[in-house]
């Protein structure tokens, strides 16, 4: 599947799986708008993409603090200044907080975790919805987590992270129903912990992917490309995964 006609926004694209998404969307030919909390982080990934031979006019770096409504609005305005539509919004940003003890996180950690994952996802989606509605085939992809599944308890993540992911799950569930009549597909992924191999390394193609191995970033990216590549009568609402 080639994506040369797609314009894609990815939040938290400065590292980890966000970087992976940025590199893989660009490798399919998409025009990508990358955000990170600092412009420097987004620029580093932009430079990596350009080093692969991509057109500089189709790779854009932006700063966006998902906990700051003004920053989210500025990010959306900066993208709107460059394009009249967005075809795919990937809500990847969400701060992780470790710790099974509720008291292990400071109040500031709790607030930031909830704000980036829950509030940030709502604000970004709201800010970019006008551009998505101008697309002939708009898709919203949200990286939730197995922690957003009801009854999930196998992660060592802090309860605040569970709360943020549960909020994302509730938001995307209702949004899927409410935006369908406008042709917007809302796709959520609920992965457990997974191996995120560097797409620019040999391990990307050589990673073991048997039934006994942990889930890989490769498979998550494949799921996203599969979902957005379906005809517009096919609304894949969510992907849920078994945990090894």
TrEMBL record:
One Pfam family named in its UniProt record: adh_short
Lineage: superkingdom: Bacteria
UniProt keyword terms in alphabetical order: Oxidoreductase
Family named by the database record: Belongs to the short-chain dehydrogenases/reductases (SDR) family.
UniProt protein name: NAD(P)-dependent dehydrogenase (Short-subunit alcohol dehydrogenase family)
